[in-house]
């Protein structure tokens, strides 16, 4: 089906799906989107499909109300409203990742806050607010199924990099696809390390706000380093699949 975004952006979105699946941040569920580089009022997201299986042919272009713009009738991602409403709320955001990574789930269900335990998780120093669907909508299946759900999630996120979702997962955003992907990857790793540190039983020392700001600024300058490595591996895997 037709997607008006550039071929380079489409390729990177396919690669982002593969990277996040390969690194265990996404499994059969979860998704990643990117704002169109040709129309900021549109974004691109896969149809309902496991991230590891996504190709360019599986992508659907949506307006910010999360309606397909080219008459695409394939089954869409149920939680596309996460993406559309975050793009509406944040003009600075051009990529969104939603994950169900198990290591992160406890921090949305516990009074223990997710905090930066090492420099790669420094963006968490700005906070990891928890979106609790029940607070706003009562008993639900916890899926972000409509614009109202997405708007409340966007409100919880505010101007931050990440929002946890109680009983569900988390969403990260970024000014480009590599930043959003890296934040998702290092949210999962930071959560895993924080859990291990807590289980040691002693006092845990986290980055303070000043350290977190300095570390985050430094890492954002070299975000291409992990992205290029992960992209290289994903492309090699895609080439191998193509020859089978």
Structure description:
The chain is an alpha+beta fold and 244 residues long. It has a single domain, classed as L-fuculose-1-phosphate Aldolase, CATH 3.40.225. The chain has helices spanning 7-22, 80-89, 105-109, 133-137, 147-157, 177-199, 209-220, 224-243; strands at residues 31-35, 42-46, 59-63, 95-99, 130-131, 162-165, 169-174. A seven-stranded mixed β-sheet has the order 3-2-1-4-7-6-5, with helices on both faces. Strand 6 and strand 7 form a beta hairpin. The model has no long low-confidence stretch (mean pLDDT 96).
Summarize this, please?
The chain is globular and about 55 Å long.
Q: What's the CATH class label? A: Alpha Beta
Given helix and strand content, the structural type is alpha+beta
What is the radius of gyration? 17 Å
Number of domains: 1
Q: What is the percentage of strand-forming residues? A: 5-15%
**The CATH fourth-level homologous superfamily:** Class II aldolase/adducin N-terminal domain
Tally the helices: what do you get?
8
String of helices and strands: HEEEHEHEHHEEHHH
If you consult CATH, what is the topology?
A: L-fuculose-1-phosphate Aldolase
CATH architectural arrangement: 3-Layer(aba) Sandwich
């Amino acid at each position: 089906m037709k997607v008006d975004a550039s071929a380079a952006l489409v390729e990177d979105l396919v690669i982002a799906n593969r990277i996040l699946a390969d690194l265990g941040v996404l499994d059969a569920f979860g998704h990643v989107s990117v704002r169109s580089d040709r129309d900021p009022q549109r974004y691109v997201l896969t149809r309902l499909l496991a991230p590891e299986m996504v190709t360019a042919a599986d992508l659907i272009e949506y307006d910010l109300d999360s309606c397909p713009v080219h008459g695409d009738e394939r089954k869409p991602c149920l939680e596309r409203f996460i993406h559309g409403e975050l793009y509406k709320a944040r003009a600075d955001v051009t990529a969104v990742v939603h994950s169900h990574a198990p290591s992160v789930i406890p921090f949305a269900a516990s009074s223990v806050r997710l905090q930066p335990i090492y420099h790669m998780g420094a963006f968490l120093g700005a906070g990891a607010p928890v979106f609790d669907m029940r607070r706003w909508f009562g008993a639900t299946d916890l899926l972000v199924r409509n614009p109202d759900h997405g708007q409340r999630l966007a409100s919880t996120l505010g101007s931050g990099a990440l929002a946890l979702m109680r009983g569900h997962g988390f969403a990260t955003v970024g000014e480009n696809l590599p930043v959003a992907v890296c934040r998702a990857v290092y949210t999962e790793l930071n959560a895993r390390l924080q859990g291990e540190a807590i289980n040691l039983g002693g006092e845990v020392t986290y980055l303070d706000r000043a350290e977190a700001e300095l570390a985050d600024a430094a890492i954002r300058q070299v975000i291409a380093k992990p992205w290029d490595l992960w992209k290289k591996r994903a492309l090699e895997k895609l080439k191998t699949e193509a020859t089978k």
